[in-house]
Each structure stands twice: as C-alpha cells, then as structure tokens.
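Hypothesis: this fold can be encoded by more than one sequence.
Test: take the structure tokens below, design a sequence, compare later.
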C-alpha cells in the first residue's frame, strides 16, 4: 500500500500530461509489443529515429521469395521495412501489416469494408484514414520467403546437428563424455529414463530420436526468445502447429490393433455406448495434438506480452519509484521465463511420449 500510494503521489502532478500524452505512449508501447511478436522479412538488432525524423535500422535483409505468375526473388531491403515499394520484373510489391501485397508504383492498398460494399483506398505508408473492419483486397502472392524465424529454425537445427554429431564421435573413441557431451549426456539420459521409458515401455528406442529432437529444439529456441535478438519462433502458431502435426502423424501411424480397438469398439462397454463413444474417442485423437499446439504457443506468447508490458510501464511511470519497481518485476519475470522455456520443452516431449505409449500399448487381456 505504501508503494502504491507513493506511485500515485508521484504521478499526481502530471495529471494533465497523462490525459493528453499517456494514451499515445500506451498505444506506441502496444504497437511495439505487437511488432515484437511478429515475424519479419529482415533481421534487425535495433532501430532508432534521427533528429530529422528518419527511421534507421541496424541489421541485414533476408531473401524474399514469391510466386506470382512465376518465381520472384529479391532482397527485403527493397521493401524498406514497409516504407517503400519493390519493383521486380515490372511488378510492384509492398509490405503492409507484415504481409506482402501486389500493388502499383505508388504503393496503393485497396480495402473492402465489412459493413458496406464501398472500397476504401489508403497509401501503403498510412497517409489516409481507413475505416474499421476493413481488410486489404490487393492480390497476395504465394510467399516462400526466408524470414527471421526460418533463419533461426535452420540455425538451431544446424547447432543441434553439430552438437550431437560431436557427442557421437566422442563415444566412438571413449565411453566417457567429453566437451559438450558432459552437458548433453545427463539431459539425454533424463529424456530416456524419465520420459520415454515410463510412458512408452520397451519400444522406446524407436521414438527417442524424435523426442530428443523436439525437446532440445523447443528448449533452445525458447531460450533464444529471451535474448535481445528478438526471436519469437514458438509464439508463431504455424511452428507449434507443425510440431503438433508431426506428433499426430507418428501417433496415428504407430497405432496398433489394440489402440484402434479402444477408439472405435471399446472392450467391456455396452454396444449402444460404443456407438456414442466412438466419435468422441476419434475426436480426441485430434484434440490431443491441438492442445499441444495451443499450450506451447499460448504460454510463450503470454510470457513475451507480460514481460514487455512490464518493461513498458517504466516509460509510463517515469519516476524513481515506479520505474525501479517495474524493472525489478521484469527481472524476476525473466528468471521465471527461463524455467518456463525448459518446462514447455519438457511438457511437449512428455505428452508426445505419452501419446506414443498409448498407440503401441499391447492388449493385456
């Protein structure tokens, strides 16, 4: 109560400023958080605004790959972070709300409102006002671009390959782990003895490669998301969907006769109940991987939003009480996020192993 009273007292003399400027500041923070959560067509370490009002970006562009009546490949620097129009083979493309649309030389974006049939036009750089509930009607070409998330997925995959290849090479010479193997061996043993064996049983070896891959991938990529690099791979629902889909396919194609019998014709259950329960059990095979997808996506996204919101409070309070408190809370939450990064990797791997175990379980009758 003392700290809350102090914060209110320190802010009371800025009441008029809060009324006139805080809304804009809060909107700016919200837009920054939204931008942070999105994938991007270039890799930026940071950006700043010059005294002349020009936006400067420190980083490097990535290749944009589009299919628009043929393959179009160009550097994302042509898009100028959504402030320019890229001309490729007589076609024009612009970036609007982190999506690439086909446009004209002026970068015109056409909109169709949901409440009426009128078409609203806005310059690609936001010069004109657009009605609410409007969405772009411009042609959106097929996008196969190498975005920031794709780059880091490839880098993490390469890192994992090099680490485990080094460990495998060492084991050919000695049974004692060396170098990075001293760190990886306890984790591999943990995944085997605490996740795979208890949930799958004697058939665990068949699934160890996938379980180890998904465990280390999710853990490492989550840790990178806590660095200033601005990497947010697992808060992209397309990535978590792909991981959950792999788990679903492995579970489905691993299912034995006993597994499918318990889904479509449960033993020991009256026939009328079997007819009722069969669709529910079948639906459950889709709900399980869906829960994997949403759990990983929601936890990582929520962590980033809360952490950056607390950091944003420092720019709202602007006093010696509120700002240090926000910083301390953000620091404590960052430590908690380290636990969440590992916990989400463990939960995803554990539930995947559980589903595999259910699919290969033998009939005990």
């Amino acid at each position: 109560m003392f700290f809350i009273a102090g914060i209110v007292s320190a802010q009371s003399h800025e009441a008029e400023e809060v009324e006139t400027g805080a809304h804009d500041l809060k909107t700016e923070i919200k837009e920054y958080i939204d931008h942070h959560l999105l994938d991007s067509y270039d890799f930026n370490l940071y950006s700043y605004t010059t005294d002349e009002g020009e936006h400067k970006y420190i980083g490097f562009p990535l290749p944009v790959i589009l299919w628009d009546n043929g393959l179009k490949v160009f550097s994302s620097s042509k898009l100028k972070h959504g402030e320019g129009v890229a001309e490729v083979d007589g076609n024009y493309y612009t970036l609007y709300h982190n999506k690439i649309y086909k446009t004209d030389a002026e970068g015109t974006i056409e909109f169709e409102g949901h409440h009426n049939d009128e078409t609203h036009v806005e310059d690609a750089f936001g010069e004109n006002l657009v009605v609410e509930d409007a969405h772009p009607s411009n042609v959106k070409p097929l996008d196969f671009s190498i975005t920031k998330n794709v780059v880091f997925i490839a880098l993490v995959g390469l890192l994992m390959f090099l680490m485990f290849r080094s460990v495998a090479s060492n084991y050919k010479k000695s049974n004692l782990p060396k170098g990075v193997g001293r760190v990886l061996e306890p984790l591999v043993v943990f995944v085997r003895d605490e996740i795979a064996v208890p949930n799958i049983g004697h058939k665990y070896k068949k699934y160890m490669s996938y379980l180890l891959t998904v465990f280390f991938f999710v853990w490492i990529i989550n840790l990178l998301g806590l660095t200033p690099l601005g990497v947010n791979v697992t808060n992209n629902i397309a990535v978590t969907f792909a991981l959950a889909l792999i788990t679903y396919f492995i579970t489905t194609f691993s299912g034995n006769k006993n597994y499918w019998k318990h889904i479509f014709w449960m033993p020991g259950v009256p026939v009328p109940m079997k007819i009722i329960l069969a669709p529910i059990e079948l639906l459950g095979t889709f709900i399980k991987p869906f829960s994997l997808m949403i759990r990983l996506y929601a936890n990582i996204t929520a962590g980033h939003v809360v952490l950056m919101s607390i950091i944003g409070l420092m720019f709202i309070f602007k006093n010696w009480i509120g700002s240090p408190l926000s910083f301390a809370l953000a620091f404590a939450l960052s430590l908690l996020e380290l636990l969440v990064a590992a916990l989400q990797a463990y939960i995803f791997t554990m539930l995947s192993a559980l589903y595999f175990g259910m699919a290969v379980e033998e009939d005990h009758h």
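Residues 55-143 form one domain. Residues 167 and 179 are 8 Å apart (CA to CA).
Hypothesis status: open.
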